[in-house]
Design a protein that fits this description.
By secondary structure, this protein is an alpha/beta fold. 43% of the residues lie in helices and 12% in strands. Residues 297-318 have low confidence and may be disordered.
Length: 735
């Protein structure tokens, strides 16, 4: 029996033998990579077989047996990487060196392999001999795929290979320690489509709006038979995009034997709404058919020591690998994972292959990353069989141009709906009222207008404006319990509770309801107001805000009023530029055109992208040079510097207490994936300077020692505004 160990004993006292681990990881890595692209099969298997070659060293075996401390002498990934480099297998070298510490830049990889500290070349003959005595004869004579010399396609191949290896390594290690077999659920598109159809058929069919939704649904089903590629679903708000887009995805998966559906949503504010709808239709018992994966949690630090502590549970840093039939995730999580270097972010990538990806509200894709992002999407489609659906009422113009070199040529994107122009005209449910140039609106005047109505929604551009207007509306209102505030300083569960138990109930019952919100409410949130006020904003935001007005078509027309706040502070950067372009465009079109002409948005976005740096951080050049870690550092969807904290709201205090008081032992994990999913709804992002200030005051503390999750003290969370640091609500000072 082999004496070489891969990991320490599990709770049954069984050690993880190295030869068993290498064989299992080799097989799994091959399966994962081959499922996306058959060209990757051979190199993937060898990457799995050789990833822990360095664990044959005596120093590492002594470390596992407690005979020496962790140090550079116990590092192991460099040896398999050096062997791959010796055989000119660049992709293998990248991924083996990275399988704990994350992908390196190429110059750092070369320095690591050549480092005299590790003396890898002199160690290899002995390590290979041990490997061949236990596993098989070394045979690296194959050629790695080079994708016709296209460096960007090769770069994505490295990422897919890395993902396959990391996930295989995690899964086999987790199974050893937890003694639980790998849980798998394959997509059953026929079954899920039948459930979706039953949901659709349960809805009313009478009336023009319902007939239109039925027609859009059927067009999505019919278009699903087309070859894999890029599709657009251009439907006005209220046209039933959520169910119709999923109908296309499931029918398309059935047609082409695809593995999963991934729904990418721009805002945390609406992900729980869509995920809850899919859960109700497909997975009411919560069996794992639908997985909701947020991005509020910071990545765990890279394990530079390359080996988990024998005391830590493999779940100490919970991650998701997207091995589920339906994934609902955020734009930040999806996009940043495509350019990531860390194992925790990259683990899921191979499960994007042969999937249908729906970008909901696609107009929100970050303009500063548009060039590299579109390039990656094209590679995923070409080399890994992914189909993409761009879904929105305000379709952006991702057309090939000087501003977007990786844009789409004519006919490269297939429109799913057949009569888009007529659909927009038929679904007109609002009248727009433009603000007069030069005019401004005070909070007092706006509050007077809102409180004169039984129900009204106002959307502003900043959290400060939302707080100020909310307080003014409450001051003027005779029914203060009918006034509500929504912003991103409130955790997702808090917003969900207010929407579900207060706002929607009042709207249904025709009771007074006055809501002041930041733009988080305008994309996909299912509310229906007769009147909406919108501070001047980017054109797509204005139209999305209008989608909260007369949403169900109960009125002949709802009314949407645009205004210029007296204190017209705008978020800096692209948002401000887009708002200025919108102001000029509104002077050139009529209020009727904005309500019915969807071609205006192509005109707007074409003009907008001329002012945008679509590769602001030179990501394409970094990718071309195989600088993976530098790419990851620069490719951030949200450029402001924020940190997530867990707040005390609802059941979060109960969850926090349960985690902190849980007995600590090698046998039981203190923090699991289930814990992470329970806590996701209680995260709020703070700016880094706010985080640092509160942490210095002792008001932010780790959830658990050595875990990169933090809890904000109870006194800083308000039941109306969410996180309040310095500006307390005015009513707090009234006795």
């Amino acid at each position: 029996m082999s004496n070489f160990l891969a990991h320490n004993e599990n709770r049954s006292g069984v050690p993880h033998l190295l030869y068993e681990h290498l064989r299992c990881v080799g097989t799994l890595t091959r399966q994962f990579a081959e499922a996306g692209n058959s060209q990757l099969a051979e190199v993937a298997e060898w990457a799995g077989l050789l990833h822990d070659l360095g664990k044959y060293r005596a120093e590492f075996q002594e470390y596992l047996r407690g005979q020496r401390q962790s140090s550079y002498e116990t590092h192991h990934a460099v040896y398999g990487a050096a062997l791959a480099a010796q055989y000119r297998k660049l992709a293998m070298a990248f991924v083996i060196a990275a399988h704990h510490a994350g992908l390196h830049d190429i110059d750092d990889l070369q320095e690591l392999i050549k480092s005299q500290k590790y003396n890898a070349q002199d160690c290899l003959p002995d390590l290979v001999a041990k490997f061949e005595s236990e596993i098989c004869r070394l045979d690296l004579g194959f050629k790695e795929p080079n994708f016709d010399g296209d460096k960007l396609r090769f770069e994505m191949f490295v990422r897919m290979l890395f993902s396959s290896l990391v996930d295989a390594d995690f899964l086999d290690t987790e199974q050893h320690f937890t003694l639980q077999p790998r849980a798998m659920q394959a997509l059953q598109p026929e079954e899920l489509f039948a459930q979706l159809l039953a949901e659709k058929n349960s809805k009313p069919t009478a009336g023009e709006l319902n007939q239109l939704r039925h027609r859009i649904f059927q067009q999505c089903v019919d278009a699903a038979a087309k070859p894999r590629g890029f599709f657009s679903l251009t439907v006005p708000t209220g046209g039933g995009k959520t169910l119709s887009g999923m109908a296309f995805a499931l029918a398309h998966a059935r047609q082409h034997n695809l593995r999963r559906v991934i729904v990418v949503i721009p805002y945390l504010s609406i992900i729980e709404q869509n995920a809850a709808q899919y859960q109700r239709v497909f997975d009411p018992q919560r069996t794992g058919i639908v997985i909701e994966h947020h991005s509020a949690v910071n990545d765990p630090p890279s394990d530079t020591n390359e080996e988990r502590s024998p005391v830590k549970s493999p779940f100490e840093y919970a991650t998701e690998n997207w091995d589920a039939p339906v994934i609902v995730t955020t734009s930040v999580q999806f996009i940043e994972s495509l350019f990531a270097a860390k194992t925790s972010r990259c683990r899921k990538l191979h499960n994007i292959a042969n999937a249908v990806v729906i970008f909901d509200e696609v107009q929100t894709l970050p303009s500063h990353l548009l060039e590299p992002l579109l390039n990656v999407l094209k590679i995923l489609q070409q080399d890994y069989g992914v189909s993409f659906v761009f879904s929105t009422a305000t379709q952006p113009a991702f057309r090939q141009s000087n501003a977007i070199k990786n844009g789409f040529a004519e006919n490269e994107i297939t429109e799913i709906t057949e009569d888009t122009e007529a659909t927009f005209a038929q679904l007109q449910r609002v009248n727009f009222h433009f603000a007069q140039p030069g005019s401004t609106e005070s909070w007092a005047s706006l509050a007077e207008k809102m409180t004169a109505q039984n129900q009204a929604l106002c959307i502003v551009n900043t959290r400060r404006h939302a707080r100020e207007l909310y307080e003014e509306v409450r001051r003027q209102s005779d029914d203060k319990e009918a006034v509500f505030h929504l912003s991103s300083l409130m955790c997702a569960q808090h917003r969900f509770d207010i929407l579900e138990t207060e706002i929607r109930v009042r709207l249904r019952e025709q009771r007074p309801c006055h809501v002041i919100s930041t733009q988080l409410i305008e994309a996909g949130v299912d509310v229906d107001f007769p009147i909406v006020y919108r501070a001047l904003a980017p054109l797509d935001s204005i139209v999305q805000a209008a989608g909260r007005c007369n949403r169900e078509g109960k009125l002949t027309r709802g009314e949407v009023f645009l205004f210029h706040p007296e204190q017209n502070t705008l978020p800096k950067g692209f948002y401000s530029t887009a708002t200025n372009i919108t102001a000029m465009l509104l002077q050139q079109i009529t209020e009727q055109q904005l309500a019915t002409d969807h071609e205006i948005f192509a005109r707007y976005f074409t003009q907008l992208y001329q002012y945008a740096e679509t590769d602001a951080k030179q990501i394409q050049q970094l990718r071309h040079e195989f600088k993976f870690r530098s790419t990851s550092k620069e490719a951030k969807v949200i450029e402001d510097n924020t940190r997530a904290v867990i707040v005390h709201y609802g059941r979060s205090s109960e969850f926090i207490e349960d985690i902190r008081t849980r007995p600590f032992s090698k046998e039981q994990a203190r923090f699991t994936k289930t814990d992470l999913r329970r806590l996701q709804r209680y995260f709020v992002n703070l700016y880094q300077h706010q985080f640092d200030h509160l942490q210095a005051l002792g008001q932010i503390k780790p959830l658990l020692p050595n875990l990169e999750l933090f809890v904000l003290s109870e006194g800083f969370y308000d039941d109306r505004f969410g996180i309040v640091i310095t500006e307390r609500p005015t009513e707090d000072f009234i006795l």
